[in-house]
Design a protein that fits this description.
The chain has helices at 6-20, 25-82, 90-94, 112-123, 145-149. By secondary structure, the chain is mainly alpha-helical.
Length: 150
């Protein structure tokens, strides 16, 4: 704080002895010592508070920097999931050639009654005939009189 050597202290002591006298000098020295101690404690407390505030500020700055770095890494990872395939990947090239959602009954059956019924239903005809899809095998077999006698 102050650079006071022995010579300066000796001069202050002699001047204090002359000004105050030998009876009041010890109490004045004690009072000055108490005041100097209080000032040193106050300055030490202020210095500790300043150091603590600087430490907290540095922690906040490092936290913000870490958060920014983590946010950047997170955005890099999420970007890779949002666009999983590159422009030249087979999945991207095949996407425009994807099948259309339209249903073509002719691709599944050659029965014209099924195709006609589907087209009528697509057109919104409420009287569209429901096609009986039972084949001859599925229909109940009618027995003739010759089969009954055997």
């Amino acid at each position: 704080m102050f650079d006071i050597g022995f010579a300066e202290l000796l001069i202050v002591g002699v001047v204090g002895l002359i000004v105050l006298g030998p009876e009041k000098l010890p109490t004045a020295a004690r009072s000055v010592g108490l005041w100097v101690g209080k000032i040193r404690r106050s300055l030490g407390s202020i210095q500790r508070e300043i150091n603590e505030e600087l430490r907290v500020d540095e922690l906040k700055r490092s936290t913000v920097m870490s958060k920014q770095q983590l946010d950047k890494e997170l955005s890099d990872v999420t970007d890779s999931f949002q666009r999983p395939f590159g422009d030249d990947s087979p999945a991207t090239k095949a996407a425009p050639e994807a099948p259309k959602p339209e249903f073509d009954p002719a691709a599944f059956t050659q029965d014209s009654s099924v195709i006609d019924a589907y087209e009528k239903a697509e057109a919104g005809d409420p009287d569209a005939a429901v096609v009986d899809n039972q084949t001859d095998v599925d229909k109940p077999h009618e027995t003739t009189s010759s089969e009954k006698s055997s």
